[in-house]
Amino acid sequence: MTDQDKETKELTLEHRILIQVRQVLASVVRDVTPAAGRPNPLSDRTIEDIRACFALIAARERELSGNQNPDLPVFADDGATTRIVNFKKSES
Questions:
Q1: Which own/partner contact pairs does 56-62 have at CB distance under 8 Å and 24+ positions apart?
Q2: Which residue of 6, 65, 68, 80 has the fewest CB atoms within a 10 Å radius of its CB?
């Protein structure tokens, strides 16, 4: 397995972790959101911290997807956006 294959596999795992963390965090927020007219059980500071977590997760997902929208599908017949160039030291 090449270094690039290992890196891709790790990024895939990292992206899966980020997706799971985002989904669990969203579920927690839905579960604790009070009905209309009832006080919120979370402090203002906690709400801001949750927003910051969502922002960090979204930023990292954008980085992992090459600053493309991570929720957009990627098609196999799409052209490659990167090209690997090998540099070899010339022998004199």
A1: 57/18, 57/21, 57/22, 57/25, 58/22, 60/14, 60/18, 61/15, 61/18, 61/19, 61/22
A2: 80
User: With 60 as the cut, is the pLDDT of residue 16 above it?
Assistant: yes
| Position 62 pLDDT exceeds 80 | yes
Q: What is the pLDDT of residue 64?
A: 84
Does residue 41 contact residue 34 with C-beta atoms inside 8 Å? yes
Are 22 and 57 contacting, i.e. CB atoms less than 8 angstroms apart?
yes
Stretch (H or E) spanning 27: helix 3-32
**Domain region containing 19:** 3-33+42-64
Per-residue pLDDT at 3 exceeds 60: no
Whether 86 is in a domain gets the answer no
